[in-house]
Design brief:
By secondary structure, this protein is mainly β. The chain has strands at 2-3, 7-10, 13-16, 18-20, 33-37, 42-45, 51-53, 58-61, 65-73, 76-84, 89-95, 100-102, 106-108, 110-115, 120-122, 128-133, 141-144, 153-158, 160-168, 171-180, 214-220, 224-227, 236-238, 240-245, 251-252, 257-260, 266-268, 274-277, 286-293, 296-305, 309-317, 327-329, 333-342, 347-349, 355-359, 371-373, 378-381, 387-394, 397-406.
Length: 419
């Protein structure tokens, strides 16, 4: 709020409208309250859509713009301009409980928007979250959840150095995160070789069928596997057929009729050769993919396999609002959830199947666990203020998240009314 004092005189009598300190702290934007001294007179604002002012000289910002604050005493009028500005996001601050986690461990990152008026607003749930590997010689990897109730929950996947970014209101902030290997080994975990897919090498240019006649058909890829379908995740694989001739080189065939012996496991497009795993398919089942041209056939067996579990992430939500939370006051309660991540990019809620535990960090002088936890992940804080490690173990993988238990806040005194 910016104001300049004006004066109006009548003989020896002068009257000024002078800004004074706000009665309650606020920001220089719509909604801020400021006081103007009016000695035994009357006040007013020329633009009520920008600001209004009480009879005691208290101005309140309503919308961005400029107005004039006037004070009248008997027949003398004084005024001063008042500008109300709209605050914008100046920067994003990203914080986390600890700068280092081990592979498969999770922790909650938080984002705070700092506005041009100095106000700080939590935007963890609204921010867009991403992760980035920052070291070419020690490239770490972590998954971070964005756009849901567990926004900001980060899980270490590959040991190394990463940056976790949060973007909101046109501004981006970040915080570094080091993912360390499980166990005492100091060397970084090597980046695993990507799982091969049924898609073959680049498609060669098809050649016309030679006069020597088609002898046999080779289906590519040969016998292979695809992960079972998981929820909305659809698993596909492209098949190609190569013709083998008696007196000519092999060539890619384009006039192929494709079929699957068991569509309940996986179907295939009859003309394109694109196979799709059926939702009814189960691990261990198989189907025979056949390519046919005239009376010549070639086959390949497709087997379904279970996806491999990569990690387990843990996050807590407020039982009333459902918003992700990583702190609790004495006597409060949070609902914790466990999410399993698989190598086929699918996820699974394993909250009810995981084994839950609550411990304290090692080395504490008073190792008192400040919470209790049920097998369903419901955490209740006791009367002790301390840090607890909430862990969920599922199929040999454990996800962990630090929970800070704080004393219950005291009631703040309310600011007196200015009207």
């Amino acid at each position: 709020m910016h104001a300049a004092a004006l004066s109006a005189g009548r003989g020896e009598t002068n009257l000024q409208a002078v800004p004074t300190s706000p009665a309650c702290p606020g920001r220089a934007s719509p909604g801020k309250v400021g006081s103007f001294k009016v000695p035994s007179g009357r006040g007013g604002s020329t633009q009520l859509a920008v600001a209004n002012i009480s009879s005691r000289g208290v101005a309140t910002g309503v919308g961005a713009g400029t107005t004039a604050i006037k004070a009248t005493y008997q027949t003398v009028v004084g005024g001063t301009p008042l500008t109300v500005t709209q605050a914008t996001v100046a920067s994003i601050e990203v914080t986390r409980p600890q700068a280092s986690i081990v592979v498969h461990q999770s922790e909650q990152f938080s984002a705070t928007a700092v506005y041009t008026d100095g106000k700080r607003v939590p935007v963890t749930a609204q921010a867009a979250w991403t992760s980035e590997s920052v070291s070419p010689t020690y490239p770490g990897y972590a998954t971070v959840i964005s756009g849901s109730a567990q926004a900001g929950v980060t899980t270490g996947v590959i040991a190394g150095n990463t940056l976790i970014h949060a973007t909101f209101g046109g501004q981006t902030g970040n915080a570094p995160l080091t993912v360390t290997p499980v166990g005492p080994a100091p060397t970084p975990t090597p980046t695993p070789t990507p799982t091969p897919t049924p898609t073959p090498t680049p498609t060669p240019t098809p050649t016309p069928t030679p006069a020597g006649g088609l002898v046999s058909i080779t289906v590519s890829p040969g016998n292979t596997t695809l992960p079972v379908a998981s929820g909305a995740e659809t698993q596909r694989g492209q098949y190609l057929a190569f013709g083998n001739y008696a007196n000519a080189p092999s060539a890619l065939l384009t006039n192929v009729q494709w079929s699957s012996s068991n569509p309940a496991v996986a179907g295939i497009n009859a003309s394109t050769g694109m196979a799709t795993v059926a939702q009814t398919g189960e691990a261990g089942q198989n189907t025979v993919i056949t390519a046919q041209v005239d009376n010549v056939q070639g086959t390949s067996t497709l087997t379904l396999a279970s996806a491999n579990l990569l990690s387990v992430a843990v996050y807590g939500t407020d039982p009333t609002s459902g918003i992700a939370n990583n702190a609790l006051n004495n006597g409060g309660q949070l609902n914790y959830h466990a999410i399993a991540y698989y190598d086929d990019n699918s996820t699974e809620d394993v909250t009810s199947d995981a084994v839950w535990s609550a411990t304290t960090p090692s080395g504490g002088s008073v190792p008192v666990v400040p919470v209790t936890i049920t097998n369903g992940g419901v955490v209740t804080a006791g009367s002790t203020s301390n840090t607890a490690i909430i862990a969920a173990t599922y199929n040999g993988f454990t996800g962990m998240l630090n929970l800070q238990v704080n004393p219950a806040p005291r009631r703040r005194p309310r600011c007196p009314s200015n009207s």
